[in-house]
Design goal:
Layout lengths: L3 E2 L2 E5 L6 H12 L4 E6 L5 H14 L3 E7 L2 H7 L5 E5 L8 E7 L8 H12 L14 E3 L3 H12 L6 E5 L9 H7 L3 E5 L20 H9 L4 E5 L6 E4 L8 H13 L5 E5 L4 H6 L4 E5 L3 H11 L3 E4 L3 E3 L9 H14 L2 H6 L5 E8 L5 H12 L4 E3 L4 E5 L2 E7 L5 E8 L3 H16 L1
Parallel strand pairs: 3-4, 3-5, 4-7, 8-9, 8-10, 12-13, 12-14
Antiparallel strand pairs: 1-2, 2-6, 5-6, 10-11, 14-15, 16-20, 17-18, 18-19, 19-20
Helix pairs in contact: 1-2, 3-5, 13-14
The structure holds magnesium ion.
Magnesium ion (MG) binds next to loops.
Length: about 425
């Protein structure tokens, strides 16, 4: 069984992700690390999984520090003082899900090699139980949120903007309202009380899930609306007119301000809009596989100053390699205090995008992609790190097999006539499917 997905171990609580499994993860990890810091999001099942992990970690001799209900970036930042970090969260998934995500001291999630090692050890039951007098020490630390706030305050200026902040009843309610207030903002909160049933809205901060925030920004005459997902590693925004700002737009805006006049390197996944390349002209744009952990790896590899994923994951290595929605919110406040968000959006180039899927059996995907690559190669510059992306004069197309479903996804973006570009790609995939 494949335990780890692109976002760690995740599944339905007490069915796929059980205390027995968490105990084993704890035993395996605790047999390899001497110290660990652990935190959790507000999900109903989180304390159950967290306690099983603590039992496993201490039983194998690892000293555990528990920091309680925190955001994922708070946990990842706290990991700097330990050999590893453990976050019990299912991020933006619905209430019935839970997950375990493991962190390195620099705030980078465990990479695939580290995950494979843990997975193999669980299968082989490769762990040690220590004698009673070597059982890991357990302690609680209530300072992690304060430390994270203080670190962010050193990196931003702050301003007196009026902000509506929607924490979606997630972990963001433990930190973002306090941070923004301390930065001088007038903060109106929505759903700031953590509640694992997520009664207010779906925890994923998408345009359709943020109708309350969009309305509140207009009605309160606020300068900015900010929304988090369930564990606040993500952040999305609404401009002062109550309009949702797309992930590609935010990616470009953060990029411009992070690069400044120095024009550094920015890392983005392969499906990011070419609007980012055009807006950040002069900066080097490096593309990676889709998934925030690949973006983080890319940033580390190229020594980039910033990277992000249009889903709302913004990574600033000056704080950690974990997407930090809390820091991103504070950073956006600085940006918007210089220029209104709607005006910043007007400066961005805008291209048409078209997306679609075609059915394709999982076992046929590899062969299909080989054929598609041969057909697309003559059309332009090919990038094949995650599906096949081909760059042409007028735009680009991406053909990418779905990781979870029997489908292949086609994306096209064009300066003009996106339909023509999309149909060209679709025709190639259809023929290759025959
Ligand atoms: Mg998340």
């Amino acid at each position: 069984m494949k335990l780890f997905g692109s976002s760690g171990i995740r599944g339905i609580a007490n069915k796929e992700i059980t205390p027995e499994l968490a105990l084993k993860v704890g035993l395996v990890l605790g047999s390899r690390k001497k110290t660990a810091v652990i935190g959790r999001d507000p999900r109903v099942s989180a304390p159950m999984i967290e306690h099983a992990l603590i039992a496993g970690l201490t039983a194998s001799g690892c000293a555990v520090t528990e920091i309680g209900l925190v955001t994922t970036p708070t946990l990842a930042y706290a990991a700097r003082n330990y050999e590893c970090g453990v976050m019990v969260t299912a991020s933006h998934n619905p209430s019935e899900y839970i997950g375990i995500k493991l962190w390195n001291p620099d705030g980078m999630a465990f990479d695939s090699a580290q995950q494979d090692e843990i997975e193999r050890a669980i299968e082989e039951e490769s762990f040690t139980r220590v004698p009673w007098n070597l059982i890991g020490k357990f302690e609680e630390d209530g300072n992690a949120i304060r430390d994270h706030i203080n670190k962010i305050k050193k990196l931003v200026k702050g301003s007196s903007l009026k902000i509506v902040l929607d924490c979606g009843c997630g972990a963001g309610g433990t930190i973002s309202p306090y941070l923004l207030q301390e930065l001088g903002c007038e903060v109106i909160t929505l759903n700031a009380q953590p509640d694992g049933h997520f009664p207010a809205r779906n925890p994923e901060p998408t345009d359709e899930n943020l109708s309350m925030l969009k309305k509140a920004v207009v009605e309160f005459g606020a300068d900015l609306g900010i929304a988090h997902d369930g564990d606040a590693d993500r952040m999305m925004a609404v401009d002062e007119k109550g309009k949702f700002v797309s992930g590609d737009e935010l990616l470009a805006i953060f990029g411009l301000y992070e690069c400044g006049s120095s024009k550094g390197t920015v890392v983005v996944p392969v499906d990011t809009s070419m609007m980012v390349d055009d807006y950040l002209e002069g900066s080097e744009i490096v593309r990676t596989r889709v998934g925030d952990v690949y973006v983080a790896e890319g940033i580390k590899l190229c020594g980039a100053i910033y990277g992000g994923e249009p889903s709302g994951s913004w990574i600033f290595p000056k704080i950690s390699y974990c997407p930090d929605g809390v820091y991103a919110a504070a950073r956006l406040v600085d940006i918007v205090s210089e220029k209104k968000l709607s005006e910043l959006r007007k400066e961005l180039p805008c291209y048409a995008t078209k997306r679609g899927t075609l059915p394709c059996a999982n076992e046929k995907k590899a062969e299909l992609m080989k054929k598609v690559k041969a057909k697309l190669e003559p059309l332009g510059e090919v990038l094949d790190i995650d599906g096949i992306r081909v760059e042409m004069e007028n735009g680009w197309v991406l053909v990418r097999p779905s990781g979870t479903e029997a489908k292949v996804r086609i994306t096209a973006e064009a300066r003009e006539n996106v339909d023509e570009l999309f149909e060209l790609a679709e025709k190639i995939v259809r023929e290759a499917l025959k």
